[in-house]
Specification:
The chain has about 110 residues and is of the alpha+beta class. The chain has 1 helix and 5 strands; from the N terminus they run H-E-E-E-E-E. It has a 5-stranded antiparallel beta sheet, with no helix packed on it. Strand 2 and strand 3 form a beta hairpin.
């Protein structure tokens, strides 16, 4: 005849499983938070929400290079803060609706 475990032993095993699940959920939430931060950094920003800031290092009255889109295609450009205009190379580009910073991968 099989030995029937005591109720306290069953409850103890259940608590261990619950603790492991809590730990796994905490780790997943940490990963999710890091991913959300990365997504926020790389999102397309509507021009109505804001424009790139002026460079403070070398070139006055313009932003750093950014990606811009007209909803059909994308290219790199910069924002001229004094003239209030986008500067990019090439023709056939529509009205710029969104932009995002160019973020290079981090190297260790």
């Amino acid at each position: 005849m099989d030995k029937i475990p005591k109720p306290s032993a069953i409850i103890e095993k259940q608590w261990k499983v619950i603790d492991k699940l809590k730990s796994a959920m905490f780790k997943q939430n940490t990963v999710n938070s890091k991913l959300q931060a990365q997504l926020a950094k790389h999102r397309w920003i509507p021009v109505e929400e804001g424009l790139p800031e002026e460079r403070q290092d070398t070139v006055p009255y313009r932003s750093k290079q950014v990606f811009v889109t007209d909803g059909q295609s994308a290219r790199s450009a910069f924002w001229k803060t004094r003239r209030m205009e986008w500067v990019y190379w090439g023709d056939g580009f529509g009205v710029i609706t969104h932009w995002k910073p160019i973020i290079l991968s981090e190297r260790e």
